[in-house]
Specification:
Copper Amine Oxidase, Chain A, domain 1
């Protein structure tokens, strides 16, 4: 009986420990001893030991741990945090019990046991007094100060997350682009080459759109032997090694790798950094270094782009290599900071959203186009993948194809020398047959107002215009003309008569696996394309920017999808409700004169940045994102519409994002008989509305967390009503503009 009681008691203690640890994060269970000089004796601290993160990187304060006072104020060591981590100069004058911290030409004096302080010579009052202690472990003397007070005095952003016991400190950093000052909140990255630190000259790497942009003026290229040039007149960036060449142009996603046109995820940019008073060129780190033949790894623990000449045996050994947290990469990118909401009252709830993937597209009708997830049917190896994934969290393998396809039953070796193992299946690569540059040299930009294009394309005997299958990869601005059979020899030296400006390069491939010859037309815009016969030996391919063909163009986005269900309630996924509304919109628009592009028509996923970028690619007049809301509070209900604050005025009677938001809100609440949630129309820099180049809104139809409202949201008739409001609002706007 005693043994049973002992086991039950031990189990209860273990359960309480797990609950306690979960409630306060990993820092709460520790304790340490220190000598408090105000008391003249050693005491044991048993409270929460905060973890400090500076610009997203955890600070090592293990030798001088921090604490929370009985007034719930976070304290940390002056030398441990401010000197060793933040780079401030510190001094302690024992005779006056004065702590001096100098940071960015500002001077703060604080006094042990006193709340009086001086900042830049002006007397101020601290919320609590510094204390002087001696850590028993290590016998380290330390002065501890209230960290929020000190950090905010020096202009740093300070966030406290009670659920994890974490203090997040962001050092102020900004850059100027296109005449706009942008406050940058994210990781300020470092670079190493073969394990050695690269001098950045005050211009750290920046994480933008999930991509690590590196400082082209750093010492990286000198250390790695890369020849780097920038032409001030043309703004062309050229990087060369003995074997490879990468050619960029500022503000263009078009890049030429060893002569082949590709698209990178983020264009090279020139930013003015006020901190060093210089213009700095930033280029995509992974894309650049891997295409120059180097190995690239992203170390998320240290915020470092690790570049190697030869592949290391075990790079970084951090367990976090090639994972990037860009949730705070720019002010307004998201409402979350590392997935946690900030609270000025030192309380916090948790939220977050993932948003990375790649996509391809397919044409489905005369007036509608969907962006569907790439299922691998058209996957190409690295030398033919023109929409290059440039995000910092890619694997180092340059090929997107699955290089192994193991048979599970035969993969286990049972001591028979592997006789049961099945051979690996390696996908057959497409063969590059010919490359045709439509202009002399490299071209990076297209004039959308003057991009009518005609190609006189020679064809083999008995091949007619009707034999070509048209395939579009809209986000990559690629149009494929595909014919069955191997015509490699015919097109190896074929002359293509080209007139116009919409095609930058033509690449011709043969796919042995599908037995297809593929003529890839690469552009920087989405083009409409038609093929007709000229004679027995030639077909005419006519192209133009889609907005020049279709005068009314919009994009409708169903939020979330696939592995990202969005909000969830009572067995329902937000992604499914969003899609249901979109499909109802599709039915309504199919017979209209509006060209509609849908981001998805099934349970697939597309990154937020790709969703936002699509409006510019097709010249959309409007971008409408469909979402459903959720809250911790089950009684919250109502409809709201979000918009970004960028100037996205169109020719539709001066339509802006804010005007579109008000139209949508008024029409939705009137037709659906829902109340307005909060302010109704809310300026919020969500990625899809902030980065869209057209008037853009994000509709939050209602709250799934409210049982009564959810019962309406899942109703088919209600979903059709929502779609009807969207349709009518769009058509009314066009009618008024006409």
């Amino acid at each position: 009986m005693k043994r049973v009681k002992f086991v039950l008691g031990l189990s209860l203690l273990l359960l309480l420990f797990i609950v306690f640890a979960h409630a306060y994060g990993t820092q709460a269970a520790s304790s340490f001893k220190y000598k408090d000089y105000s008391l003249g004796k050693y005491v044991t601290y048993k409270g929460v030991i905060p973890t400090y993160e500076v610009d997203g990187i955890e600070a090592d304060l293990s030798e001088q741990p921090s604490m929370i006072s009985d007034r719930n104020i976070a304290y940390a060591s002056v030398n441990g945090l401010f000197r060793d981590v933040l780079g401030a100069k510190t001094k302690y004058t024992k005779s006056k019990k004065r702590i001096t911290i100098t940071y960015n030409d500002h001077v703060l004096n604080m006094y042990i046991g006193q709340t009086k302080a001086e900042f830049d010579g002006e007397e101020i009052e601290a919320p609590s007094a510094p204390i002087r202690i001696k850590y028993k472990k290590g016998k380290i003397m330390a002065n501890l100060v209230p960290t929020r007070f000190v950090c905010e005095l020096f202009g740093m952003d300070y966030f406290w997350y009670e659920d994890t016991g974490t203090v997040s400190v962001n050092i102020p950093f900004s850059y100027e682009a296109d005449g706009e000052t942008i406050r940058y909140w994210g990781t300020k990255g470092k670079i190493t080459f073969d394990g050695e630190d690269v001098e950045l000259y005050g211009a750290p790497s920046l994480i933008i759109s999930d991509t690590a942009l590196i400082n082209a003026d750093s010492d990286l290229f000198g250390m790695s032997g890369v020849d780097y040039t920038f032409d001030d007149e043309t703004e062309v960036i050229t990087l060369n090694t003995e074997e490879h060449e990468v050619v960029y142009c500022l503000n263009s996603r078009i890049v030429y790798v060893d002569g082949l046109l590709q698209r990178c995820a983020v264009s090279p940019q020139m930013f003015y950094l006020p901190s060093i008073e210089e213009d700095i060129i930033y280029i995509p780190g992974r894309f650049t270094m891997e295409n120059l033949g180097f190995y690239y790894f992203w170390n998320s623990e240290t915020g470092t782009s690790e570049v190697y000449y030869e592949k290391p045996v075990d790079p970084s050994e951090t367990g976090n290599v090639d994972e990037i947290d860009s949730s705070v990469s720019e002010e307004g990118n998201t409402d979350t900071i590392s997935g946690k909401e900030e609270s000025n009252t030192d309380t916090v709830s948790s939220s977050g959203e993932g948003n990375t993937d790649t996509a391809s597209t397919e044409q489905t009708g005369n007036n509608e186009t969907e962006i569907a997830e790439n299922q691998g049917n058209d996957s190409e190896t690295a030398n033919t993948d023109n929409e290059s994934d440039n995000t910092a969290d890619n694997s180092n393998d340059p090929s997107d194809a699955d290089v192994t396809n193991e048979n599970i039953e035969g993969s286990e070796n049972n001591g028979n020398n592997g006789k049961n193992e099945q051979p690996e299946e390696t996908p057959v690569e497409k063969v590059l047959v010919n490359v045709v540059n439509t202009v002399d040299g490299y071209k990076f930009f297209i004039d959308k107002d003057n991009c009518v294009q005609s190609l006189l394309l020679p064809v083999p005997e008995n091949v007619k215009a009707g034999d070509f299958e048209l395939r579009e990869t809209l986000l990559s601005c690629i149009t494929d003309l595909v014919i069955k059979g191997d015509y490699s020899e015919f097109y190896k030296n074929a002359e293509i008569n080209n007139t116009g400006e919409s095609i930058l390069q033509i690449q011709i491939y043969y796919d042995p696996e599908a037995d297809e010859t593929i003529i890839k037309l690469l552009s920087d815009i989405v083009i409409g394309c038609g093929v007709s016969d000229v004679d027995d030996n030639t077909v005419l391919v006519r192209m133009d920017f889609v907005k020049n063909i279709y005068k009314k163009v919009i994009v409708i986005d169903a939020g979330h999808g696939d592995h990202d269900p969005g909000a969830q309630a009572e067995g329902y996924n937000e992604s499914d409700l969003n899609l249901k509304v979109l499909l109802n919109c599709r039915e309504l628009f199919k017979d209209s004169d509006v060209k509609v592009y849908y981001t998805r028509i099934d349970d697939s996923f597309l990154s937020l940045y790709d969703r936002a970028a699509f409006a510019e690619l097709v010249g959309a007049d409007m971008f409408i994102a469909i979402h459903h809301n959720s809250s911790w509070y089950t009684d919250v209900s109502g409809t709201s519409v979000y918009y970004g604050d960028k100037d996205t005025t169109t020719s539709l009677n001066g339509l802006t994002s804010e005007k579109l938001a008000w139209r949508m809100l008024e029409n939705l609440t009137a037709a659906l008989d829902t109340k307005v949630f909060g302010e109704g129309v809310i300026n919020k820099n969500f990625v899809v509305v902030r980065d869209s180049k057209a008037p853009a809104v994000l509709l939050e139809i209602g709250f799934m967390s409210n049982h009564d409202e959810l019962s309406r949201l899942v109703n088919d008739k209600f979903s059709k009503k929502v779609a009807k409001v969207i349709y009518n609002t769009v058509m009314d706007i066009y009618e008024e503009a006409d």
